[in-house]
């Protein structure tokens, strides 16, 4: 404890510290004005919602504005030569609305001006393949619709484009037909039906055969359905050119697939092959009195082409389809 001085004098007064002055908060409006005017503030200001301001157009609203025009309602292009000249560049546009318009122009050219589209068909197809990878639903659906119109109006498509271009298009169609999005799946299935109905079945079947062993079971199933459509359109000569044994082997592999869709398509293939085989055997029977029995000849073909278990399964399907 400090001792007081002997002279009893009071200690010197300690200098007081200056008191802090309270800051006066600026009014909200003034503070906002100062903050907006300060050049050093690099932070973005949150925009105030104004109930009186018009709402901005969103991407979803833009997609809803895109009209999916049926093929029969597409009119001829006003200036077809100019549309054909700039079509590839327009299809490659980063503006998805312009890309959709270009896809519809491609559909118009395919339906009404196929002679103008034919010289640039391969470039257009490769551009369409690129648009089929677009994440926007409007672009994706319109691109698949363009495929349908091209198939319907260019029957022998493989004679107009390279194998590489068609292979890329076929893969994208199979992938899109295998998607979970229903509207995409249905549109792709429609395009594949148009492909199987318009193109020569033999070259298309050769392309589809590679997808029987695809890792994606849904892709296998969609390929199996397309194969069944091809087989239904083939005569015995086309089947023999492809190989009767090879066609039965494809069907036998699909009979053991995990998806019912693939198995049903395989049964349809067996029925088509057996029908063509029986028709030819019946024609031979009329010409030759000692022609072998149809059933025996069929069983012989199955046993020579397939393992015993698969041969029995194929023979049973053929017997039930009679």
TrEMBL record:
It comes from the Eukaryota. Residues 67-308 form the TOG domain. Residues 1-21, 33-62 are annotated as: Disordered. Residues 33-42 have a biased composition (Low complexity). This is TOG domain-containing protein. It comes from Urochloa decumbens.
